[in-house]
Automatic annotation (TrEMBL):
Homotetramer. Keywords: ATP-binding, Kinase, Nucleotide-binding, Transferase. GO terms for molecular function: ATP binding; kinase activity. GO terms for biological process: guanosine tetraphosphate biosynthetic process. The keyword Kinase applies. Belongs to the RelA/SpoT family. Pathway: Purine metabolism; ppGpp biosynthesis; ppGpp from GTP: step 1/2. Residues 45-168 form the RelA/SpoT domain. It comes from Geosporobacter ferrireducens. The chain holds residues 1 to 214 of 267 of the full protein. This is GTP pyrophosphokinase. Transmembrane segments: none annotated. The lineage of its organism: Bacteria, Bacillati, Bacillota, Clostridia, Peptostreptococcales.
Length: 214
């Protein structure tokens, strides 16, 4: 398949990513507006590059005409949370959405089953209906939910893959595993003082709202 054809295929995926970002950012804004705690800290999203899609298809022996049904993370949304238990609140928010909006297909729990690399995150695979110029198209998308610490680790580790591909030297691999454990400990420590932090943040927001309305 040619790049031009791919660009056309990817249009609904671009739209889905934009829409999903708006929806999850909207939840955050809404909760903050009413001075409620938001389990969502920030949201990002991306459409996989064509080269990365083709690489994955090759890795899993997926023929061109099955790529859209077999590769579930062409559209990807990432939701970052402050604390580990916020991840579960976000998962609930996703599960409770109307099926006409998005439909959860299945979930991958890399929080309890961390990957060999040290990767931790929670993935929810969804079916999402996009209204295109040619009617509705249902696409697959992956929502990754993680803490800020997990995201820090994954971002650094991911960047090393560009340099080393699958061949990250053992010495660095070991360091990364230790860093993953440290990130995990950081999440646990932060969780211990969660209530204290949330109260302080509420006070800070009330104060800045008061100052800005003067
Ligand atoms: P990008 O640049 O985000 O597209 P696979 O994709 O082959 O690893 P699978 O089962 O198809 O495995 O999907 P899975 O496990 O849901 O992983 C898909 C995505 O999760 C990855 O996409 C990463 O974003 C993230 N991920 C999974 N494992 C790791 C890991 O060990 N380290 C980091 N940093 N991220 C991971 P892509 O395609 O790798 O990257």
């Amino acid at each position: 398949m040619q790049i031009r054809q791919w660009n056309k295929i990817l249009i609904p995926y671009e739209q889905a990513v934009e829409e999903l970002k708006v929806k999850f950012k909207g939840i955050r804004t809404e909760l903050r507006e009413i001075n409620e705690y938001s389990p969502i800290e920030f949201v990002t999203g991306r459409v996989k590059t064509v080269s990365s899609i083709l690489e994955k298809a090759k890795k899993y022996n997926v023929p061109d005409d099955q790529i859209e049904e077999k590769i579930e993370d062409i559209a990807g949304i990432r939701i970052m949370c402050q604390f580990v238990d916020d991840i579960y609140s976000v998962i609930e928010l996703i599960r409770q959405r109307d099926e006409k909006d998005l439909k959860v297909l299945y979930e991958k729990d890399y929080l309890h089953n961390e990957k060999e690399s040290g990767y931790r995150s929670y993935h929810v695979i969804i079916e999402y209906p996009v209204q295109t110029a040619y009617g509705q198209k249902k696409i697959l998308a992956e929502i990754q939910i993680r803490t800020l610490a997990m995201n820090f680790w994954a971002t650094i580790e991911h960047s090393l893959h560009y340099k080393y591909k699958e061949n990250i030297p053992e010495r660095i691999r070991e360091r990364l595993k230790k860093a993953a454990e440290a990130a995990h400990r950081l999440d646990e420590e932060m969780w211990e003082i969660r209530d204290e932090v949330i109260n302080a943040q509420k006070l800070f927001e009330v104060k800045s709202n008061t100052v800005s309305s003067i």
